[in-house]
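Let's practice the habit of predicting before peeking. Look at the sequence and jot down your guess about where helices and strands might fall. Then scroll down.
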Amino acid sequence: MKYLTIDDIKSQLRLDFDCEDALLELYGTGAEDTILYLCNRTYENLVGTYGEVPPAIRQLTLELVDIGYTHRSPVSPTNMSLVPYNFELLLYEYVALAGTPMLNERDRIVNTLQAEKANIDFFASDDQSDTKTELCQRIDDMITKFMNVPSLTPMILISMGDSLKKMVDDVNAYLKSLTS
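Done guessing? Here is the structure:
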């Protein structure tokens, strides 16, 4: 582990035995790697920028370890949800935005929308219908909206992905109607 210790993790989990130290090391390393990935930073970059690993980053990493240790399976018999905004609010300040997973996903969605518009232009070049005009306008509006989101969160990306799926379905239905 780069910045957590076994003692940090045991304090978070309220453990006082040593028999699972190897497992805790695994969870700690995985949580650190995940947080650094989400921040689009290396450990050295984080320390170089802030002089140390900021307390909020340490807290989030310990929360991830706690989740992994407490819920050792990706399925749960109970309904679990994130504490609203906690994770994003604490992490947001430390994210190096260029090339982050969230920006990359947004860019992938926008590129897919641009490709769908190119498909319409190519496969329906002769069509002058209102449907084509409306679809192209919707795509342009979505691209503008997605490129101007002030702060990306996982929930916003899920919404963007849902909007993209609907748009792709609408474009496919339109293109299919041209061949019918």
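How did you do? Residues 152 and 164 are 16 Å apart (CA to CA).
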